Amino acid sequence: MNVESRKRALRYQFEKVVDLLGYKFNPDEELVDFLLQQEVYLEQKHGIPFCPCQGLPKDREGRMKLVCPCIPFHREHFDYMI
Questions:
Q1: Average pLDDT in the 16-31 region?
Q2: Which is more confident, 43 or 18?
Q3: DSSP for the chain?
Q4: What CA–CA distances, in Å, run from 65 to 4, 5, 74?
Q5: Percentage of the residues of the chain whose pLDDT score is greater than 70
Q6: Cα–Cα dist 47/77, whole Å
Q7: Which of 5, 11, 26, 80 is 20 to 30 A from 35 in CA distance terms?
Q8: What is the pLDDT of residue 63?
Q9: How far, in Å, CA of 51 to CA of 41, rounded?
């Protein structure tokens, strides 16, 4: 899958979570596009779309806490959705 296709797929996937949490994407489409692009690059490099907003720890356990969207940051919301 090319970068543009994957960005669209990630945005579609994240929209479902964002809507359920009562949030919305930033209206600055250039910023959103840049962040989605960074997630695609991180996914290509590491196999997982890590959060582009944070540095990746060296340990796997620490990295798994940074899979986007940030589940640890929104833990109570994710637990409510299940």
A1: 83
A2: 43
A3: --HHHHHHHHHHHHHHHHHHTT----S-HHHHHHHHHHHHHHHHHHSS-B-TTSPPPSSHHHHHTTBTTTTTTTHHHHHHH-
A4: 26, 25, 11
A5: 73
A6: 25
A7: 80
A8: 72
A9: 11
